[in-house]
Amino acid sequence: MTISEPSATFWVRAANQQGRSDWSAPSDALVPSGVPSAPADLTAQFVFDTGRRGIQVTWGPPGDDGGEAITSYRLTVNGADAGSGDGAWRTAFVPLEGNDPVSVSVTARNGRGEGPAAIGTVAPFGRPAQVTGLTVAPGNVSLTAGWNPADSPGRPVADYQYRVDGGAWRGVGPATSTTIPALTNGTTYQVEVRACNGESGFSDDVRCGPASDRAAGTPSGPLTDPKITVTLPDKWGSTVQVDWSLPGGNGREVVSQTVTINGSDIPPAPGQWREDVGYGVKVTATVQYCVATGTTPECRDASGTGSTANLFTVATAALAPLTGTCAVPTPYEGEWRTQATCSPGTWVEAPTAADLLCVRTGPSYPEFPAGNPAPAPFKQVNLWYQDKDRNWYRTPVLVKPDSKIPTC
């Protein structure tokens, strides 16, 4: 026991009828110090679990009991009595409302009175409120989620957490938006968010608020342009072929697909159009597709053009030259005929005037396009001749029976 008051010195002597004896030697005697010191090892822990919300207080006996046994302890919360007990009392639970900081004190008492208080403070908190205003915007294999700040009584929000399709919660810190990566374009996901404070030692159901309402989002990537080509399968023919391909929405719903050829709509499938359009015809083709993006669709298109050769071009086209100075060695039927042999080759008009006179100059023999045979009885394809003016002329030949030969 620690002595906190000064000791006193006593002298003792005996007396009888004959007189008094001498004083004895002096002797020191102990005097109790008084009230106990403050209780030791005070702890005050906020408790927030199922069915309980308050402060759990524990303490130990004073280091100095004042020379007498501790008879009782007294507990106060924010200056108000919160309980008392005998000298064996060491712990108490005090229910608590609100989230303001709380002051806790415990004093010990012995037969001489109440000692000083051991004092501690506690900072209660409330469960964060439900997150509101959750929105989800699509990105390329990702979603961007944003939400309103949540109220968190007694503690600031230390961590917002999200989960996808009811999976594990993932923290993003105190920010009120985040990008959710590694998703699949075109797949719809359900997202939830909750707010959590920074307290440790508590379950998530205590330090985290309830999950927000779900928000759905479908990731989508950038759109690509469709492709279209206009070709002539036969260089000297009158057939046109149009080929096209329409990409998907890359995660977004395709709401329309259109193919237009020379102003007429063509079914998008099977992706090809082929038709004999005649000579000298220009073909313009356009392909377009649109995807849903809110209230206004987003579209991509492509176009192509091509033209078949006109009959004059077909009739006068020169390919690889052939040797020779005249077209054929024998007469033939038609608007032109030979007057003499090929030296140098003199040609005169037939009684019927020619409708076409296609002229080429040069020393070589022009070749008519392959695939257009000469009229009977000739087996040659090439029906050109070189007149005395040294120019090359081609015999008028109708490529189609119903074709009209234009003027050169």
Walkthrough of the structure:
With 408 residues, this protein is mostly beta strands. It folds into four domains: 40-122, Immunoglobulin-like (Sandwich); 135-217, Immunoglobulins (Immunoglobulin-like, Sandwich), CATH 2.60.40.10; 227-309, Immunoglobulin-like (Sandwich); 312-408, no CATH class. 2% of the residues lie in helices and 40% in strands. It is built from two helices and 30 strands. The strands form ten sheets. It has a four-stranded antiparallel sheet, with no helix packed on it. A four-stranded antiparallel sheet has the order 15-14-17-18, with no helix packed on it. A hairpin with a 2-residue loop joins β7 (72-77) and β8.
Q: What are the SSEs and their pairings?
A:
Blueprint lengths: L7 E3 L4 E2 L2 E2 L6 E3 L10 E10 L2 E9 L11 E6 L2 E7 L4 E5 L6 E9 L2 E10 L12 E5 L2 E5 L10 E8 L5 E2 L5 E4 L8 E9 L6 H4 L7 E3 L9 E5 L7 E7 L8 E8 L2 E3 L5 E5 L5 E10 L6 E10 L3 H6 L19 E3 L8 E3 L8 E3 L23 E3 L5 E3 L14
Antiparallel strand pairs: 1-4, 2-3, 5-6, 6-9, 7-8, 7-10, 10-11, 12-13, 13-16, 14-15, 14-17, 17-18, 19-20, 20-23, 21-22, 21-24, 24-25, 26-27, 28-30, 29-30
